[in-house]
Specification:
By secondary structure, the chain is an all-alpha fold. It has a single domain, classed as MFS general substrate transporter like domains (Growth Hormone, Chain: A, Up-down Bundle), CATH 1.20.1250. The chain is about 80% helix and about 0% strand. The protein contains 18 helices and no strands. Helix 2 packs antiparallel against helix 8.
């Protein structure tokens, strides 16, 4: 049956179909992103041991943590265009298997140069994964549902912190000395290999299109395709070149940059910030780091659900961004006080992470076709350059001043700027 000939379906059938799709796709994609994000930021935990073992400065660590995003930036758009042409299943599998091996190989780092090279290659390998998943979700869910869907998917960032913190602390203490390897070496090995396993699983679990999904009935396929077809009528189907020059896309890229400054300031430095409160035990640092991420996971789902229910994006960007800014600023001011510092970091983390799923409803509603692949990749790659700047800036400030106070104020300022740009980005054209 042609998609355009599909008659209106009962609400119960529509809801059941989308529940079926969500339960089929989201748990697996969620797990993949948990592993991806953990491999990206576990260097923040490894730092607690490897800096003293390898005699790296804070600036060297910040540069190594951040150089990941240079490789990510260079290869992001080509990777997403390849995914759009070859299909999500094979390309996402390639991405995950490659980065899993590279992440594990971080255990063999012995010099700053080797550290920089492997982090760069890891970024190049992972390029295209996140925007590819966001693009993949647009093949299944219409724009009005994406705030909730993307929020559920992106809680993987928070959950990687909830799971990764205690897990990393345990690995670095419990495995230290086994086979003659340091705890941080075991950390990279044990947290890198699951990506390889899941990459193989992608080939078995994911489908390239609705029509190719054997687990859907013909009626369900017709419904999904008709909804996506109707959704695409309001999208701009621009060429790749037009998309990359579109002022709206460039504005969204700048907005995402502001938010990512805050995200990676927290992601890469949270263990060190907790250590700065006087907590020295690695297991305790791991457990405490789970608290901000646990609260953030709940906040992300609630904000995404509220944004979809009200079909409102502006306030759902501005308010969490300002709360995130307040938390980061307070963490800078009271970072040496355990209770106030933890409360501030929790507020900052929840605010920073809650803006992300709502943000991604904007470009996915705006763009379609190859232009969507290029536009989403451009926004993500430019935004993630902040992933280079943010940890490097924090490390340089800490080396220069002996603390991270000024750096946290800069990150807070970036979130305030993001809130201001959000007003422009969500303004309806006259």
């Amino acid at each position: 049956m042609a998609a355009e000939a599909v008659l209106p379906q009962p609400a119960s059938f529509v809801d059941a179909t989308y529940r079926k799709v969500a339960w089929r796709l989201l748990p697996f994609l969620f797990l993949c992103y948990v592993v991806a994000y953990l491999d990206r930021v576990n260097v923040g935990f490894a730092k607690l041991q490897m800096l003293s073992d390898l005699k790296f400065s804070e600036t060297a660590y910040g540069l190594g943590a951040g150089i990941f995003f240079i490789g990510y930036f260079i290869f992001e758009i080509p990777s997403n265009l390849i995914l759009h042409r070859t299909g999500a299943r094979r390309w996402i599998a390639r991405i995950m298997i490659t980065w899993g091996f590279l992440s594990s190989s971080m255990m063999f780092v012995t010099s700053e140069t080797m550290f920089y090279v492997l982090r760069f290659l890891l970024g190049a390998a992972e390029a295209g994964f996140f925007p590819g998943i966001i693009l993949y979700l647009t093949y299944w869910f219409p724009a009005q549902q994406r705030g909730r869907i993307v929020a559920l998917f992106m809680t993987a960032i928070a959950m990687s912190g909830v799971i990764g913190g205690p897990l990393s602390g345990w690995i670095m203490t419990g495995m230290a000395g086994v086979n003659g390897w340091a705890g941080w070496q075991w950390l990279f090995l044990l947290e890198g290999m699951p990506s390889v396993i899941l990459g193989v699983a992608v080939l078995l679990v994911l489908d390239d299109s609705i029509r190719g999904a054997k687990w859907l009935t013909t009626a369900e396929k017709d419904l999904l395709e008709s909804r996506i077809a109707a959704d695409q009528k309001g999208q701009a189907h621009l060429s790749v070149g037009q998309t990359l020059r579109d002022p709206r896309v460039l504005l969204l890229a700048g907005l995402y940059f502001c938010f990512i400054m805050g995200l990676y300031g927290v992601s890469f430095w949270l263990p060190q910030l907790i250590k700065g409160m006087g907590v020295t035990d690695l297991n305790s640092i791991g457990l405490l780091s789970a608290i901000p991420y646990g609260v953030a996971a709940v906040a992300m789902v609630l904000v995404g659900r509220s944004s979809d229910a009200l079909q409102e994006r502006r306030l759902h960007l501005v308010v969490p961004a300002l709360l995130g800014a307040a938390g980061l600023a307070l963490a800078g001011a009271y970072g040496s006080q355990p209770v106030l510092g933890m409360l501030a970091l929790t507020l900052g983390t929840a605010g920073v992470l809650s803006v992300l799923p709502v943000f991604w409803t904007l470009p996915t509603a705006l763009l379609g076709g190859a232009g969507a692949a290029a536009g989403i990749a451009l926004i993500n790659s430019v935004g993630n350059l902040a992933g280079f700047l943010s940890p490097y800036m924090v490390g340089a400030v800490k080396d220069a001043t002996g603390n991270t106070t000024l750096a946290m104020f800069v990150l807070a300022g970036s979130m305030v700027l993001g809130a201001a740009v959000s007003v422009m980005a969500t303004r309806k054209p006259r």
